[in-house]
Amino acid sequence: MPSGGVRVPSGRRGAEASYGSARARETASTAEGTGTDAGGPGRGDETDPRRAHPERSCPGPRARGHPAVCGDRHDVSVEKGGRGHAPEDDRENPRGSGEGANRPGLRRVAGDLIYAAPRLLRKRTGKNEFTHASEFGVRRFDWTRSALPPRPWRGSQVQRRLLFAVLVIVFLVAAPPLLLGGGASAKTPPQPPGGFVDAIRFFQQPNQAQALVDLKSGAMDVYTFPLRSVADIAAAHSDPALRTADTYGFENDLFVNPVPVDQNQAPGVFNPFAIREVRQGLNYVIDRDYLNTNLFGGAGLPHAVTWNDASPEVVRDPFFFRDTNRGAGFDFDRGKTIISNALFAAGATYDGTWKWQGNPIVIPIVIRIDDFRRPLGDYVANQVESLGFSVNRRYMSAGGAFQTVYFGPPDTGAWMLYTEAWFSFLEVQRWPDSDLDFYNCGGEGSAIWSFYSPPPELRDVCSRLLFGRYASESERQALVEQGTALSLGESVRVWLVGSSTQPYSSRVTAIASDSQGGLFSPFSLRTARFASPGGTLAVGQRVQFISTFQPWQGFAFVYDAVIGQTFMDQGLSTHPRSGAFIPVRSVFETTTAGPSGTMAVPPDALTWDPSTMGFTTVPAGTTSMSKVRFHYTFGTWHDGVAGNMADVLYQIALIARRDRGDVSSHDFDAVNVHDRMFDNLFRGLKVIDPTTLDLYIDYWHVDPSFIASAADVWPATPWEVGELAMATTLHDHTRVSELTAAFDGLDAIDLAKGPAVEFMDREISSGNITTRGPSVTRPPGFESYVTQSEAEARWTALQSWRTAHGHYFVSNGPYFLDSVDPAASQATVRNFAGYPFPRDRWEALLDPPVPNLAIDPIDDVQQGDEASVSMFTRVNGKLFDDATVHFRIQAVGSPDTLLSGIPDHVGKGEWQADLTADFTRNLAPGTYSFQAASSANANFVVAFADRTFRIVSANNAMSPMFVTSIESAPTPSAAPIQLGAAAWDDRGSARISISFCGSG
């Protein structure tokens, strides 16, 4: 995965995010030259959107103004390659960041590009398609394809109408208050509201070695930039003054060029990796455990498949993934044999070195010099040389690597292996449906895919997952496992280790982290605190203020998103360990008739009509696949104004206006991915009471929480902020999108900094926005929803806020944006006393349980007898219930599974698998392996345990014992005589018989 691909905050498009305004590009350019490990266009810390499909949305802030970055993997050039679907150099761009990234399918898609750097190469390739390149990689983003929701096959209209029984899944999120917080009516908090500290100060520190010094001295408390050098990672792990968030979202891999060399361009040059079996053999010659130990201090997760063991994907069938990883594990001799056989078959010769047509076979390896990928690349080069190849080590920074690997012709022999890295997730991805397509079927858009085509079977799997063409979780699982095997067979990418280390001071006594995104989680800084309440938390970041601060198409850069998610609330957010969507301000119930049925939308439901600029009843006969009922906790906005249902209805109206109304006529890219999808899927709304809203959407997903996320339209700003900002676009002073702003030579909307703030001032001073009187400005079509007095009060509060804080970014999170200083590259947020939830609301996220697993000893089982096996899950020595356990039985030495399933939960932390008489009767006498796997339901890290047992014949229940040693008998001299013997079998018991022979 190319490092450097970061996703945009949910819902953003990569193009706009990456390109940005001229000012943003200048800032990025300046920042780019300062980091010790930076290297390339965007340095990989931004977000890189990859998916536009609700089913694969990424849990993170949404397109609508939630900065959390999530999404599929982002390639982080910065060293991480985050599988965000950008070449390695884009790793730091999380895979699904962006406003839409947080929404199921919608949110993940958002990870639009995120590196706003001068080297960022973007070119328009068609009416609906752009190609993005950043330090983290390249990705082609098709607006049309991304904006249209992928839906499973639904059958014909007749078939659907024949489904009289509608399958209804009601998913009411009812969890302990600590986990999900209050609902529509929150009780008096047991602790003060808001955050744990008085203020959070964000500042720029591109040098990670200096950051470690600052953390120890007290100048810094948290450093969000993942460490990139082996020395710094080791120092952070060993220093008692530091702590680390060690997670797994930064993926390292080898990008393998499968394209044969064009002999007209490079006569005599031979690419052995154009041979499928040679690519496969690479898996065996790389010792992933060695890399993990020596480069990452053992803190990573080695893996050969697309996902590491902390991914929810692995938890669904842990044995399949364990077997697959083991099957492709380190075995140098095996790999050498596979590669040698393939080369001989291709006509190569070997005389101590490999030759083709008499020419030495030279392997050009592009090795990134920006971080630990340099020693990683040297290790790979050494292993390749050990196979008998000559190696050309091409050391490059991000820019050169990108031009060679992602943009250059792949058939000239300029490169054959590349040390990629991806920042796969800023938030854990529960349903990463686009990953196989992105990495193995051309989704990331690099040059090789114009020359190399995956097998049809793999392309079919990639497409079906990408567009959600499955009707059940079991059907999806079959596709995932088929695609995993097929992609490993192709090995265009050879996965190595997932590891990310973010340091913080030991003065910080608690902080939540995401299993993939680490401290990029929206819950991290919300839970951070010192031993004593209050204080100012000093947060260092690699770079800041690259993207715009606004909820509609802003926060495209990951570090800007980190700031935004402290002061903006989402309706739903992704659980940092399970990847499921959980309520923040919107408790939800999901009812669905999908995937093949529909439900009637009530005739009095409303929808927005852009032609009349108002709400109207839905057309007769309108149907949808699902309904989501939201129970909102409004509270007050940061300027003291009470939030209400009008703010939510305005959000729905503004989505339509930005997608196909008055705003879109001035800015064709004014809507982010999530919101575009919502507008496409939305079928009607019905207000139930002042805090309850029903939304009908024509969308289905196997996970009800993802349906809710697709329908989530919780606003990040009050309606008056939206109207004021949109007025600057309607009067052609600004654009919503950074992309169109760049095209039109204007500034993008920014609520906190830059010329856009002054343009908003002028809208009021010029009278375009009326703040008092009968003609007071209200949203079009909202005269019946907003009274004159309420509108006047809101405009007064907003102007007072502008005077006090110097900006217009009023929001609703536990902290409020107090000040922004772009010149000093600093921003400060302060605790919001009016927040409706207590500061300890997310305490349950601090110490995610990782249960260990034990299997009781298993007695011999006689053929035809029943038996049971007991397993126990414990956390810190205490029995633990909230886990999922799988088991299987295999004959020792055989890969065939004889029995598998989920054991019964029979007591606290105790699980039991029953072996029936019919099952044991059909087993041949011998030794069998009972294997179990477990993970906490709120933390997808898998633990395994194995135990052997014997099946004994019904006719010979007592099996012979094997004596291993008997001491020689001493010469009798005096009584008593002591003889010693030892014997054992695989059960640990022994029976000894001693006989005396002879005379005397």
Helices and strands in order, then pairings?
Layout: H1 14-19, H2 22-32, H3 106-109, E1 121-124, E2 129-134, E3 137-142, H4 143-147, H5 157-161, H6 177-180, E4 199-204, H7 208-217, E5 222-223, H8 230-238, E6 242-256, H9 276-285, H10 288-296, E7 301-302, H11 312-315, H12 318-327, H13 332-345, E8 349-350, E9 354-356, E10 359-360, E11 362-368, H14 373-386, E12 390-396, H15 398-407, E13 417-423, H16 435-440, H17 456-466, H18 473-490, E14 493-505, E15 508-510, H19 524-527, E16 529-530, E17 536-541, H20 558-567, E18 572-574, E19 581-583, E20 586-592, E21 599-600, E22 606-609, E23 614-617, E24 623-624, E25 626-632, H21 645-660, H22 673-681, E26 682-689, E27 692-697, H23 704-711, H24 719-730, E28 734-735, H25 738-744, E29 747-748, H26 755-765, H27 788-805, E30 815-821, E31 826-831, E32 852-855, E33 861-862, E34 867-875, E35 878-879, E36 883-891, E37 897-901, E38 904-907, E39 910-915, H28 917-921, E40 926-936, E41 939-952, E42 963-966, E43 981-983
Parallel strand pairs: 4-17, 5-17, 11-12, 11-13, 28-29, 33-41
Antiparallel strand pairs: 1-2, 2-3, 4-31, 6-13, 6-14, 7-14, 8-9, 9-10, 15-16, 18-19, 20-25, 21-24, 22-23, 25-27, 26-27, 30-31, 32-34, 34-35, 34-39, 36-37, 36-40, 38-39, 40-41, 42-43
Description:
With 1000 residues, the protein is an alpha+beta fold. Among the domains are: 254-420 and 454-495, Dipeptide-binding Protein, Domain 3 (Dipeptide-binding Protein, domain 3, Roll), CATH 3.10.105.10; 581-818, no CATH class; 852-952, Immunoglobulin-like, CATH 2.60.40.10. The chain contains 28 helices and 43 strands. Strand 18 (572-574) and strand 19 form a beta hairpin. Helix 21 (645-660) packs across helix 22 and helix 24 crosses helix 26. The model is unreliable at 1-189, 959-980 and 982-1000 (pLDDT under 50).
